[in-house]
Design brief:
The complex is a heterodimer of chains A (260) and B (398). Chain A is 28% helix and 30% strand. Chain A is of the alpha/beta class and 260 residues long. Chain A has a nine-stranded mixed sheet with strand order 11-10-9-12-8-1-6-7-13, sandwiched between helices. Chain A has a two-stranded antiparallel ribbon with strand order 2-5. Chain A has a two-stranded antiparallel ribbon with strand order 3-4. In chain A, strand 6, helix 2 and strand 7 form a beta-alpha-beta unit. Chain B has three domains: 56 residues, Alpha-Beta Plaits, CATH 3.30.70.20; 186 residues, Rossmann fold (3-Layer(aba) Sandwich); 123 residues, 3-Layer(aba) Sandwich (Rossmann fold). Chain B is built from ten helices and 22 strands. In chain B, a hairpin with a 2-residue loop joins strand 2 and strand 3. Classes of the chains: A alpha/beta (260), B alpha/beta (398). Chains A and B meet through strand 4, helix 3, helix 4, strand 9 and strand 10 of A and helix 5, helix 6, strand 11, strand 13 and strand 14 of B. The complex binds flavin-adenine dinucleotide (FAD) and adenosine monophosphate (AMP). Adenosine monophosphate binds next to helix 1, strand 6, helix 3, strand 8 and helix 4 of chain A.
């Protein structure tokens, strides 16, 4: 089975703090990591390979430094990695990103399962996966937490607001995965050694045959016109005293605000 | 597009370095260098005290945007009812449509759903397009994307709004690619630039730590998914008149590549988190799974839904659909009571827009207190029972 996993390198948002004076994100020294959901996608790819044989290829589109995310994926045990990188791709929105990734996937050729994270924790859009499925004209099931492959079909559990659905889907197909799907493995020592030495394939816009009017910022339909930090809520009032007193005080206020 | 730093004006003060949301600016020899990954978001241009940074736009994509009219709302249904988010969006679309003098169109897909059209009209729709077919009974990406795309291509709306739900987000992303336009995810603010007649779409990124305003200037429709419970439901007017039209789905089962085998509603009988006015949430401070009964008891005496931190969900103390936060649900109730939750940035991302937040935590330095309207520093095992007792007293329950 041919499995392709798309991953994104993101800043580790657990490390992001707000500067209380300037009310801006402090990004200095914030490490870059594989988008957490994408680690689950890699793990699931490896599991599918263990169960059904085949090959796991990981792709990322990003600047040259995104190579380190690919080395982390190699250390986890994936077979091959590709860095899709070109200055022309910079500033792409989800429309242009999904086009670019779909061209890279087309260049790889044959595949059965495409795995994406539910969303990237920097942009939080959750749009790239379904976008790629559309460019490639294959079915998609978003937000899955379980997958079983039988022949040319997959049976997946898709999470919804109130519960879940069991969906049967023809392959090839694209799935976006949730955290609860699995526990990503730690890289082995051997994996890390291999990952260090491996030559990383880099594909440019020309290599993937991307049309110039569909890539990068200039051809992205959406434009970010302003960014700002939301004003912080600010610390409220601290209620003090014995539990019973605090309870009386709290409930009194809730009644005053007609919340009870 | 090009971004240029004027070496004469730049002093290397590094204000832009701190302000760059993408962390791509460095200072080299007292000069700001803009690295790869710049999205031309303008943040540095705005903060530079010396006007040393300039962006030159050379947008070539002037697609014809004439001939598009109306604001279209996807009337998402859940169990044969219009989802609240759909009603919120019809209300918002009405408000926007009045601003730019256009019509509101609602699209409803499903099996035997045309009686919902009247409800859409009563909240502000001028025209409702119903596509009724047993094949559309359940949401499936292939079928819904096909029918929605056909309707959009025929109707040519200026704007398409969909709920940022598990259905809306995946469906909208697929449709946007097919109709060749931009899509802004999970918006919390919609406004108009009246002069240019362009929709300004504001949304949180980085787990709510950064807000971005996004526009789609050169393609139509302008599409957004909008977070539930952000837009206010407008006044219902049962006498409002509107046009109802039927649209033939025209799809065959053989063309749909997925099949729904089973739908499991785990929240049956529980108050739905996203719709709840009051939420009581528990975190690792509960120490043991059994102690969630305390949270459930507090929730039941005040008629609240039960939320949870990711740490408790990961530990298997409670089912995943209770999780609040960046990787769980985003909620904005009138009252959120956090018990034994530290307030990690990812948890805050899912609840910090609640009207009133009460936090109970024994650590006075817990970050949850930074967002709490009322902070109670204390042991939840003493405070929560006291709260339950007090509520029972004022409500006269025994
Ligand atoms: C990519 C990513 C996504 C994430 N998404 C989410 C998400 O969606 N939602 C989410 O919640 N988290 C999320 N997290 C996890 C998050 O970073 C925190 O780990 C988690 O929220 C912590 O849960 P907690 O507050 O229950 O536990 P802890 O951080 O362990 O806090 C427990 C708190 O209970 C207090 N306490 C202990 N005993 C008592 C007592 N007797 N009385 C009162 N207080 C007591 C302690 O002082 C402490 O503050 C995410 C993390 C990552 C990396
Ligand atoms: N630049 C990228 N390169 C590879 N995969 C990506 C990229 N951006 C997004 N993805 C994939 O798409 C998913 C959703 O991202 P997003 O739509 O940005 O929230 C991620 O979890 C990744 O699997």
């Amino acid at each position: 089975m041919e499995i392709i996993v798309c991953i994104k390198q993101v800043p580790d948002t657990t490390e992001i703090r707000i500067d209380p004076e300037t009310n801006t994100l402090i990004r200095e020294g914030v490490p870059s990591i594989i988008n957490p959901f994408d680690e689950n996608a890699i793990e699931e790819g490896l599991k599918l390979k263990e169960a059904h044989g085949g090959k796991v290829t990981v792709i990322t589109m990003g600047p040259p430094q995104a190579e380190s995310a690919l080395r982390d994926a190699l250390a986890m045990g994936v077979d091959d990695v590709i860095l899709v990188s070109d200055r022309k791709f910079a500033g792409a929105d989800t429309w242009a990103t999904s086009y670019t990734l779909s061209k890279a996937i087309e260049k790889i050729g044959k595949f059965d399962v495409l795995l994406f994270g539910k969303q990237a924790i920097d942009g939080d859009t959750a749009q790239v996966g379904p976008g790629v499925a559309e460019w490639l004209d294959i079915p998609q099931v978003a937000y899955i937490r379980k997958i079983e492959i039988k022949g040319d079909k997959a049976k997946v559990e898709r999470m919804m607001e109130e519960g879940y659905e069991e969906v049967e889907c023809k392959l090839p197909a694209l799935f976006t995965v949730l955290k609860e799907m699995n526990e990503p493995r730690y890289p082995s020592l051997k994996g890390k050694m291999m990952a260090k030495k491996k030559e990383i394939t880099v594909w440019t816009a020309l290599d993937i045959n991307a049309e110039n009017d569909k890539i990068g910022l200039d051809n992205s339909p959406t434009k970010v016109v302003r960014t700002f930090t939301p004003s912080p809520r600010g610390r409220g009032e601290i209620l003090e005293g014995e539990p019973a007193e605090i309870a009386t005080e709290t409930i009194k206020r809730l009644q005053e605000m007609k919340l009870l | 597009m090009e971004i240029i730093v004027d070496a004469e004006k730049c002093t290397g003060c590094s204000i832009c370095v701190k302000k760059c949301p993408f962390n791509v600016i460095t200072i080299d020899n007292r000069l700001a260098i803009i690295g790869d990954g710049c999205t031309y978001c303008n943040a540095c241009v705005e903060v530079c005290p010396f006007q040393a940074i300039k962006i030159f736009k050379d947008d070539k994509q002037h697609v014809n945007i004439e001939g598009h009219e109306g604001i279209m709302v996807f009337g998402e249904t859940r169990e044969k009812k219009l989802a609240n988010v759909a009603i919120e969006l019809i209300s918002k679309a009405r408000e926007l449509a009045d601003q730019i003098k256009t019509k509101v169109i609602t699209v409803i897909l499903g099996d035997k759903i045309s009686d919902l059209a009247k409800i859409a009209i009563s909240y502000g729709a001028d025209k409702v397009i119903c596509s009724e077919d047993p094949i559309l009974k359940e949401y499936r990406c292939d079928s819904y994307a096909n029918v929605m795309t056909n309707i959009i291509n025929e109707e040519k709306p200026e704007i398409v709004l969909m709920g940022a739900t598990s259905i809306g987000r995946a469906l909208a992303a697929r449709i946007a690619v097919r109709v060749n336009t931009g899509l802004t995810a999970d918006c919390t603010g919609l406004d108009f630039d009246m002069e240019r007649r362009i929709l300004l779409q504001t949304r949180p990124a980085f787990g709510g730590n950064l807000m971005a305003t996004i526009e789609c200037p050169y393609r139509r429709p302008q599409m957004s998914t909008v977070r539930p419970k952000v837009m206010k439901i407008g006044k219902k007017d049962d006498k409002r008149k509107g046009e109802i039209v039927h649209f033939k789905a025209g799809i065959k089962e053989a063309d749909i590549r997925t099949k729904i085998l089973k739908i499991v509603n785990q929240a049956q009988g529980e108050v739905n988190l996203e719709e709840a006015e009051v939420i009581v949430s528990g975190g690792r401070g509960l120490h043991k799974p059994e102690n969630f009964t305390l949270i459930k008891e507090l929730a039941s005496v005040i008629g609240a839904a039960v939320g949870a931190s990711r740490a408790t969900v990961d530990a298997g103390w409670i089912e995943p659909h209770h999780q609040v936060g960046q990787t769980g649900k985003t909620v904005a109730p009138k009252l959120y009571i956090a018990c034994g939750i530290s307030g990690a940035i990812q948890h805050l991302a899912g609840m910090q827009t609640s009207d009133i937040i009460i936090a109970i935590n024994k650590d006075p330095d817990a970050p949850i207190f930074n967002v709490a309207t009322y902070g109670i520093v204390g042991d939840l095992f003493e405070v929560v029972p006291a709260l339950i007792k007090e509520i029972k007293k004022v409500k006269g329950i025994e």
